[in-house]
Amino acid sequence: MGIFQKTIAATGWTTLGAAAGYVAWTRKSKIVDVPPTDYLFNHTLYARYNPNNAPVTQDLCVRKVPLDKIRPELLEHEGKLVEAFSAGLWSGLGYAYQRRYLEKKYRADEVTRDHLWDQQDLKSSTYDVGTKITDHFEVVSKTPTSIIVRCGDSPRIQDVRASDGLFEMQAEIKKDEGVAEFGLKSIFYNGLAQPDKEGKPPAAPMSTWIQWLHQQYDKVLMETAITNCTK
By residue range, what is the domain housing residue 190? Predict the structure, then answer.
């Protein structure tokens, strides 16, 4: 089991178990499939890190919030909403247990001093390209509506990895609908996977159980991230 699956397995149920009224709390967050036509599958990052086009485990968590509930200052300047959304995710309660788990195992001044670890730093960061988060994520793309991190293993490993993936945080203002639409998109793969001797493709990187657990974790991350964007 890769580092990502280990941390999800170790932290997911703890987070869910601590969330009173989980079903009611996350009822507005929806899990949908990432369509095969999604631009990430044609992105240079995907081609670089999954050179053999190995099978993926993917999902997308979406949530809409009325614009009158969003902090006004986040609507005034392009890109501020997705920055606040990302800051809320990494500094929020949903990620707290996983952050402490990774900190205990991997924080070391000599090798990860330039990573974000402390809650205040995670909350104040603007998540520019190159930002490293708790020795497990690195920002690899940023636009006014999207921040993408590479995940699955330490950003200190820059080569193609067995445990790898792209995780996108999206925040788009839709004035015609009167809402802000948020998304957490996950695409995971084994970048080193090869077909077997008979040419059979490798299996997807996550079991059905781990994928389901990740989807529930996504909902928790979504709800705690949004609290940094609302009044």
Answer: 3-226
